[in-house]
Amino acid sequence: MRQKNNIAQIILSAAPAGGVSLYLDNMYFSKEAADTTSEDTTSLGINAKLGMTNDINFYPNPSHDWIKINSEQAVTRLLMYDVHGTLVKSLMPQSTSFDVKVIDLPVGSYLLRIETESTETSARFIRN
To answer: Is the full-model pTM beyond 0.90?
Structure first.
């Protein structure tokens, strides 16, 4: 994946039709077609992985009971914080692929902090 510079946040807001919500996350925009590779784009569909950051991906997002985390490097530590900044889960999986039980968490948004030997990354997760 190519380095992304000048990242800006975009907030989309709408009243859901028929009680259905749509969540968009990890969107990338480019001025030049050469800035985009097949690794950078994901079309939403049945098999789309809905959370991806660096060489770590997690899905489904949102989820009700479990999320699956895959990484090219072994994840040494995973921290999960609620919207108030309170640590709600701490794991040391030492694995490249594992499941995280989330059914015990209240419905809401959470911040995942995922650490490997060489990287630290954060991503938003929604428990529904």
So the answer is: no
